[in-house]
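CHAIN AND CONFORMATION:
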Amino acid sequence: MYADDATRLARLERQVAFLYRHFGLDPALADAFPGAAGMPPEFTEALRAQNLIAAIKIYRQVTGAGLAEARDEVERIARSV
């Protein structure tokens, strides 16, 4: 990365941080998975690590869904990012 690119990237990061503060947003929500509301943090961690088996297991425990339904839903959530 060239010095100009690094300077520009740093400026953009400061601007984004300012917007988060200005609007009172939590920066961690930028990495949130749509459709994962109500799931425990371990679910999101498993999705971030691309560990779909663990995510499916957590989804089934929380929702009581069957294996096929849970797999389909977790894959849909994982693709939504």
Observations:
- The first helix runs from residue 3 to 23.
- The chain has a mean pLDDT of 87.
- The helical segments are 3-23, 41-48, 52-63, 67-79.
- The CA atoms of residues 5 and 11 lie 10 Å apart.
